[in-house]
């Protein structure tokens, strides 16, 4: 690593060692979840979030709102059939 370069930074200036999201690793998360009690809290928070967003139907309500907005207000930019097709693909993922 070049001298004077703080740990965790890449020479091109991008963040380094930040991991997380999109399947990346995150050392802090790994250490946190290595403690069984904390790992249980993370799993409970995931279950709560899933219930709040998906099981409750809230995520689908938001999707419906976006689909409607795009169809009504951006029809000159995006074909309604494309919006519907994409929304249906997202609905399938929401399960």
User: What distance separates the N and C termini?
Assistant: 46 Å
Fraction of residues in H or I helices: 55-70%
Percent of residues in beta strands?
A: under 5%
Quickly count the helices: 4
Helix/strand order: HHHH
**Low-pLDDT runs:** 1-20
* Integer tally of domains: 2
SS class = mainly alpha
- Strand runs, count: 0
Report the mean per-residue pLDDT as an integer.
81
Rg, alpha carbons: 20 Å
Largest sheet: none
Shape: elongated
Describe the structure in your own words:
- The chain is mainly alpha-helical and 95 residues long.
- The chain folds into two domains: 1-34, no CATH class; 36-94.
- It contains four helices and no strands.
- The longest helix is centred in the middle third of the chain and has 20 residues, at 36-55.
- The protein is elongated and about 50 Å long.
- It starts with 26 loop residues before the first helix and ends with a helix.
- Residues 1-20 have low confidence and may be disordered.
Blueprint (SSEs and pairs):
Elements: H1 27-34, H2 36-55, H3 58-73, H4 80-94
Helix pairs in contact: 3-4
Q: Which tags fit this structure?
A:
4 helices; elongated; mainly alpha; disordered N terminus; 95 residues; 2 domains; single chain; 62% helix
Concise account of the structure shown:
By secondary structure, this protein is mainly α. It has helices spanning 27-34, 36-55, 58-73, 80-94.
């Amino acid at each position: 690593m070049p001298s004077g370069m703080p740990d965790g930074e890449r020479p091109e200036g991008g963040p380094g060692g930040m991991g997380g999201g999109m399947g990346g690793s995150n050392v802090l998360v790994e250490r946190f979840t290595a403690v069984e009690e904390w790992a249980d809290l993370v799993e409970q928070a995931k279950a709560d979030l899933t219930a709040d967003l998906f099981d409750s139907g809230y995520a689908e309500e938001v999707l419906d709102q976006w689909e409607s907005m795009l169809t009504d207000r951006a029809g000159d930019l995006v074909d309604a059939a494309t919006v519907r097709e994409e929304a249906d693909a997202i609905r399938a993922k929401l399960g």
